[in-house]
Amino acid sequence: MKTNTSFLRAGGLLGAALLAALLAGCGEDKGEAGPAGGGMPPPAVKVIEVMQREVPVHFEYVGQVAASRDVEVHARVTGIIEKRLYEEGQRIKAGQVMFRLDAAPYQASVAAAEAQVDQAQAQLKQAEREYARVKPLADIEAASRKDADDAESQRDLARAAVKAARAQLQQANINLGYTSVRAPLAGVAGRALKVEGSLAVAGVDSLLTTLAQTDPAYVNFGVAEAEYLSTRDEVAKGSLKLDPAGFLVKIRASDGAEFPRAGRVGFEDYKADPSTGAFALRATFANPEGKLSPGQFVRVQLSGAVRPDAIAVPQRAVLDSPNGKFVYVIAEADGKLLAQPRPVQLGEWAQLDGALGNAWVIRDGLKPGERVIVDGMARIFVPGSPVSIDDGSPPPAADAAAPAQH
Q: N or C: which end of the chain has fewer CB within 10 A?
């Protein structure tokens, strides 16, 4: 057994030696094809050349949908609620009856006011007859002037009494009309706060429901003070140009679906909110189908602004480091191309045509003419490593006629 073991061990060593010699011979034959010293070739990367252009920019914020008008529906007279005439959450037309109060007491008030009008008119006729009788007698001194003056005063008082009675009749009819509680505007009705049989007390406990007008709908959002002031200064300096019609506003729901209609900024507060430090803005959207609901959170995108002579790079070219954002630029040293990290200051994001696609506006850190690496950064393990530029052309074909050598 010892002899066999020694023989196998010797055979293994001989085979290993022959394999090493064969591989060494092959390596010598192929030495001219590989990189100097047998190292790995520099990784191939794709680059773009930075240039200035007019870049449309977008701003994104978190917004919340609100009704364009939100009102409370109150009972304007005191009474027992006889019937609710709408469904909660239903779209209501302006003037539609929503609640009906017990009208019997107010019908009685109307009847009493009508009787007061009749009585006042009868008294007026009597006073007019008396004045018509006394006035001619006073003119011929058959009656005293005092009697004529008294008759004239009674006639005038009777006329005023008729007007007062008619006013009371009008007020009684108004109160009777208020027993039908109508929607002050078109919108979506909220939850009923009182049910049939409960008492509504005018001016004390009169709130019956709420009504929200959601067409048009508002979207409220805020812009941080620093960003708001910076944007305002850039517009003043001309480094940011706005559409004369103002910002075009698009919104996306929490599920990413884009609302089919665009809106416009209709309100911009002149002061910052002391509790948040942000300036409040509001956009208006047509919402006939009711797809936007008050309280809903949305992503707000403002477009319509451009940066003239701006520099932009694809978003995938921008990397993170503990010190902030950076990109790799191509530098040359000793005839080699090196990948050098360059800190950059980002601006807004933009959607551009061609190779840029989804891009970042670079506020600071790059100059026109520099080449930025956009693909292949994962193969750069050490900053400043040599790289080669992949220009998209196919690699040179291998010489198929050369015989293999070992």
A: N
